[in-house]
Amino acid sequence: MAGMRSQTVAVMVAVLATLASGHSDTTSVLLTADNFQAEIDGSNYFVMFYAPWCDYCKKLAPTWASLAQARNGEADTLVKIGRVDCTTDGDLCTQHDITGYPMLKLFRKGASGGDGGTKYRGARDLAQLGAFLDEQLATGAGAKGGEDGSLEDGATDAPPAPVSPLVELTEDTFAKHVSAGKHFVKFYAPWCGHCTKLAPTWEELARSLEHERDIRVSKIDCTQYRPICTDFEVKGYPTLLWIEDGKKIEKYTGPRTHADLRQYVARMAGGLQADGEGADEGEKKPADGTLEGGAEREDNRSVVVQLTEGDFASAIASGVTVVKFYAPWCGHCMRLAPTWEQLAEKLAARADVTIAKVDCTVDANKELCGEQEVNGYPTVFLYRAGEKVTEYFGHRSLDDLHEFVLQHLPENGAHDEL
């Protein structure tokens, strides 16, 4: 540990000396969808996922540049420092479940596209960032990171592998597991090439949904538990079934990317079938009033008010306004969309309450989202008479959101929070 601390101190001294001498920083590597996989195939990477308008990102930027200058400048560096702009590479950020900015993740050399990386949760100063990298990669401790991310030379302080949220079902557990709630189940065979190809994406899907209370992602090996697969009419591998309260609802037949699978889960869990009736095939409409991809639907059925930078101030000037700041590619936003529509419909009769939304990916709105300190999607703020009162952190059910709004109405004794 003494060696690790001394190296961290040495790195800081080197950085400060370089800055003092007037030399420019060595910036972090800009990673995009085109080069991301190639880069992490060749090196360990510590990556900052960010948005240019995010204040916390701006605050971290000089520290991140200093870290990059120190680490990327080493000829035999064990880790490179990179960054991904989520406003230009939204799909890449969705793939890695980025729901707030900045998010820092360490990717091991050669990690597959489905590897979510190790999330950094500590303080964002140079010393703590360096200590995290030293601990994870065991630099200065007589150990070297293997290509599979394991430690060699008998190192014993590697962090334990995270428990996977993907549930492996068996004959004994299947019926009870799927008997209640919503389930997305992969029926597979170990020898199936398409199953093997899907495996890391399925793991990633389970990990990205692990905090959803009423959705479970699982899998079952049909070579071991054939009767169950027969009961569910599985005739090929992999077969992906949506099951609710023990009953098969439908078979998924769409593309098998992480983004497509998450979008499907959001639609199924939100009950969007009724709202999509009459839509053209392949153009199903979420209940938040937008077509897939963010385009406004033409029938104007949505009672959620779409705000922009131009009308935001006037819209929140009177009464209570509850605003959802979102990105069309954000899985959690898709999940919330139908509930947000229901909330607006439930409060539509009240002239003093407005339920609204702002698309933060629209260029004209980016400055607005930055000014409102939106650092993740979705973010929900409540405004009263033009002033921001509070942010909503509770469960995103209709009842919880409705109760939240009612608590902040004047007749219920609402007052500004400190």
Strand line-up across the major sheet: 1-3-2-4-5
Write down the domain tally.
3
- Tally of alpha and pi helices: 13
- Rg value: 24 Å
Query: In CATH, what is the homologous superfamily of the largest domain?
Result: Glutaredoxin
Percent strand equals 15-25%
Dominant shape: flat
Q: Briefly, what CATH class of the largest domain?
A: Alpha Beta
How many strands appear in the DSSP assignment? 15
Largest sheet: 5 strands, mixed
Word description of this protein:
- This protein is α/β, with parallel strands linked by helices.
- It folds into three domains: 29-135, Glutaredoxin, CATH 3.40.30; 167-269, Glutaredoxin (3-Layer(aba) Sandwich); 305-408, Glutaredoxin.
- The protein has 13 helices and 15 strands.
- Strand 7 (182-188), helix 7 (193-208) and strand 8 form a beta-alpha-beta unit.
- It is flat, with a radius of gyration of 24 Å.
Keywords:
Glutaredoxin, five-stranded mixed beta sheet, 15 strands, alpha/beta, 418 residues, 3 domains
List the helices and strands and how they pair.
Elements: H1 2-20, E1 29-30, H2 36-42, E2 45-50, H3 55-72, E3 80-85, H4 90-95, E4 103-107, E5 118-119, H5 126-137, E6 167-169, H6 174-178, E7 182-188, H7 193-208, E8 215-221, H8 226-231, E9 239-244, E10 247-252, H9 258-270, E11 305-307, H10 312-315, E12 320-326, H11 331-346, E13 353-359, H12 363-371, E14 379-384, E15 387-391, H13 398-407
Parallel strand pairs: 1-3, 2-3, 6-8, 7-8, 11-13, 12-13
Antiparallel strand pairs: 2-4, 4-5, 7-9, 9-10, 12-14, 14-15
In short:
The chain has 418 residues and is of the alpha/beta class. 34% of the residues lie in helices and 19% in strands. The protein is built from 13 helices and 15 strands.
